[in-house]
Structure formats: C-alpha cells, structure tokens
Design brief:
This protein is α+β, with helices and mostly antiparallel strands. It contains 2 helices and 3 strands. It has one domain (about 5-80).
Length: about 90
C-alpha cells in the first residue's frame, strides 16, 4: 500500500442465535455486511477501497484516510443499531 493508504482490521460481530439457528452463527450476517460494504463503496467512497472478509474477520484498505475514518464511524453507528459493539483497539486505522 502507498504512503497515503491506510488499513482497518476488525472482527464482525455475528449473532450466535436467531430463528432456526440452534445457537450457530447466522449465515446472513456476512452477506448483509457484504451488501452494506458494496453500497457504501458505490455511494460514499471517494477513492479506491478493498475489503477482505474471512469468517468473522475483515481487513479493509482505503486510498483516502477520510474514507477510512468515515467508514469506521458509520460502521460503529450501524453496529450499535443492532446491539453489537466494536472492540476498542482492534479498529484503529494504521
């Protein structure tokens, strides 16, 4: 990544229960996150960005620091709406 590029590392909070889940992770949580990222990229990002998701972990890279900070702020707000927290120390831009 270039000198103006930053990355975020975080875990996606995935609900452990839901209708018919028998206590296992809800498979639609990751898909919902993917759709939100796609929408955010199309309508909010001003530069290039990449998001890699594996299970409940993600790495997101942004060309512009402002995009990374806005993405993180909006993601935190979105997670709070669903009662999921963001773990301090795992979400700071590098």
């Amino acid at each position: 990544m270039g000198s103006d590029t930053i990355a975020l590392r975080h875990s996606i909070p995935i609900p452990q229960s839901g209708p018919g889940s028998n206590g296992s992770p809800a498979p639609s949580s990751g898909v919902t996150f993917d759709l939100w990222v796609r929408h955010w990229r199309k309508h909010q990002a001003t530069g290039d960005m990449v998001v890699v998701r594996y299970a409940d972990d993600i790495v997101a890279g942004f060309e512009n620091r402002a995009d990374a900070e806005r993405f993180l702020a909006e993601w935190k707000e979105r997670m709070q709406k669903f009662g999921a927290g963001v773990t301090p120390g795992q979400n700071a831009p590098d």
